[in-house]
Amino acid sequence: MSFSNRLRGQRQNQPGVQREAKRGASEGSARWSDKLKSYLDHHRTVLVGTGRRLLAEPVQTLMTALVVAIALGLPAALYVGVVNLQQLGGRVESSAQMTVFLNKTAGAADIEALRKKLQKDADIQTVEYISSQQALQEFQLLSGFGNVLEMLDENPLPAVLLVQPDSRFRTDLAGSEALVARIAALASVDDVRLDMKWMRRLQGILEIGQRLVLSLGLALSLGVLLIIGNTIRLAIESRRDEIVVVKLVGGTDSYVRRPLLYTGLWYGLAGGLLAWLLVLLALIWVDGPVAKLAALYQSSFELAGLGISGLLGLLLSGALLGLIGAWLAVARHLASIEPR
């Protein structure tokens, strides 16, 4: 082995050389950590700076945020209305109870025989008899037309049987209608009414309302994209000279794009917060009349609002729409600004 090779091997085995190698590796890892820290610090600085710039122009910022809030608040308000209707419908017992109207010519023995026959039916749980006199007294009490009914020569209301089918009929409308047809064919029966049909109609209306809310939300989301995109486009045009100078000194497109994207984010967050406040104020405004109406029906129904989950949903939706709208505007208009 030559002298130079042995000297090189000794230097590599020396502690100082090993420390320098370790120091070089640590400096390399430190450089990566410094880059990451610098990158995050720049994002934080840009985020705070764009927020301060929007606060420095409160009128323009508030007007844009209000437009976004209205676009987000309309579907949110309709959603709250559908949720409250669902809550109201859930408070009413969804049963398949049937009202069997009896012939006025049916005697007491015929009615009792019919009641016992229905009671023995395996598809029926309970049968309750209400005489024509009891029906008249209840109608006088609830309708407020007691004086008018007293002027009639005879009782116009027939006797009825309240039939409660088995629990499986609560979700089986076709089976309930078949049972109605079977009961209507019995002797002494004049007519049969099924009480669960209106619940089915209400559920159908609520399903239509949900789809309308979704459709309106998608349409207004496109409106939010256009609003924020147009706002960012105006910001790009107003800062054209500044962007040209930044690109002249070596600024990349991502460096120029960053504050514009955060501007769209701030607009979306502000619009989501204002939308939540608008829905909250609307609920407070109508809460009094709804409470009075519920008291008239002896109900403890209370309006349900968006809550914290609704607030987070509106903030997230606004932020995403703001970022997407700003990105689309920047991608379209920033590439056309280049130094000459």
From the structure above, extract its key features:
single chain, 340 residues, alpha+beta, Alpha-Beta Plaits, 2 domains, 4-stranded antiparallel beta sheet, 11 helices, 74% helix, disordered N terminus
Number of strands: 4
Overall SS class: alpha+beta
Poorly predicted spans: 1-28
Total domains: 2
How many angstroms does the end-to-end distance come to? 63 Å
Rg from alpha-carbon coordinates: 37 Å
The helix-strand sequence is HHHEHEHHEHEHHHH
Q: Which whole number gives the mean pLDDT?
A: 78
Percentage of residues in helical conformation: over 70%
User: Count of helices?
Assistant: 11
- Spatial order of the strands forming the largest sheet: 2-3-1-4
- The coarse silhouette is elongated
- β-sheet strand percentage: 5-15%
Q: What kind of sheet is the major sheet?
A: 4 strands, antiparallel
Structure notes:
There is one protein chain. With 340 residues, this protein is of the alpha+beta class. It has two domains: 37-92 and 200-336, no CATH class; 98-195, Alpha-Beta Plaits (2-Layer Sandwich), CATH 3.30.70. The protein is 74% helix and 7% strand. The protein is built from eleven helices and four strands. It has helices at 3-13, 15-55, 58-91, 108-120, 132-143, 146-150, 173-184, 197-238, 240-248, 253-296, 307-333, and strands at residues 98-102, 124-130, 160-165, 189-194. It has a four-stranded antiparallel beta sheet with strand order 2-3-1-4. Helix 2 (15-55) packs across helix 10 (253-296) and helix 8 (197-238) packs across helix 11 (307-333). The longest helix has 44 residues, at 253-296.
